Request: fold
Amino acid sequence: MELADEAATAALAEDVAMRLCAGDLVALHGDIGVGKTTFARALIRAVADDPRLEVPSPTFTLAQSYADGPVRVTHFDLYRLAAPDELEELGLDEALGVGAAVVEWPDRADLSGNRLDIRLAMAGTGRRAVITGSADWRTRLLRSLTVRRFLDSAGRADARRRYLQGDASTRRYEQVIDSVGRRAVVMDWPSRDAPSASDQRSAYRARNVAAFVAVDGALRAIGLSAPEVLAADLEAGLLLLEDLGRETIAVGEAPDPDRYACAIDVLAWIHADHRPESLPGTDSGTHRLPVLDSGALGAELALFTDWYVPFVAGTPLSPAGRASFESIWAALFERLARVEKSWVLFDVQAPNLPWLADRSGLARVGLLDFQDMFFGPAAFDVASLCQDMRVTVPVQLETRLRKRYIDLRRSNGSDFDEGAFLDTYAILAAERASKNLGVFARLAEVEGRRDYLQHMPRVRNYLARALAHPALDGYAHWCQKHLPPTD
Reply:
């Protein structure tokens, strides 16, 4: 790979940084002055999202760690390593156990790890990089370079790439900032040809960026603040999106009542009119929304019985307990089949609702993460917002928000059935809380994401609120029988 100048070297370092994971070892080869430290510095700054971060060469200290960003990076310079066994004292194994390592002069020691080797050499006025690595690294880096080419074709050739916290899915997000300060977000989502055999929910979920584009267009068409699609490569699974910012309807860890009220207004607006089950798609096609029915909801609830119950009870659910659970929910699903249907954004929570203070009316609430939009019970998103899985909504605020929604729906002259809505709201609140408890348990057990456990007390409280409704008497008794008491 030809690197015309220092900016090209820094761009390659960013491309590597965007795919860096714990356990990775990036080995930088080349003579003195060829740009190894320049590369390492650019990589570390990209991971830390700090272009001014002080990153001195560790020539004398031999190692320097940087904890900012999604992965801890330790920068090693082995030029002055007296003997290979000194590497143990420097803590390379420990660094790879908790993060990644960038190593200059790697040939001076016997290094192990998930290696990416980059050999730099002068080439005219620039440099040449020869890159080799493990199969895993080759796959990741090729994808990152595909993103870089996409940005080039979208007119963002000079853009800096920065990691964005994503969701618990296969989608990845980056923020890109060009030389004139324009900000945008890359959605990186390779298409899936078939549902995952290990997750029955995937049969009901979107599998490519075309679904996002279709839903995005439908939401924008009714005046809502879904992000503008600035560029798209549907075959590659890449979108360049308007950046709606990091501010949300929550302030810190608390819900902002006025902002949540505006989000309720958005949901009431969506539900106030008949919404189609099929949307205009890409290439003159259509995108038919999946139906949020007993199949889709049952796939979600399976996470509760398969993961949460064993997590808290210490033993798998008995066949009799599972049969009773499924019988209770089959009856509840029958009730849901008869209720009002509309668009269901499906993941309405503070992180997916940016607050756009410079806009007015409903447009102040941005919408994200809606690619899985269903056609199903309208109350689903209302319950999701009023019992936000990521932010503790006090019961008094939940009550006010729910009443605001009811008043708005009544005021539009429709035949809104308040009693049916409240029953549906309670059922779906219980379903969503149960499902998410299962999600959090699975993420902790399978992926080691123990950070999700912090949300469990909040969600158990939400479940208790829902179970107080008479429509959930049977499920409340089941939970008392099969779940241990919790604080």
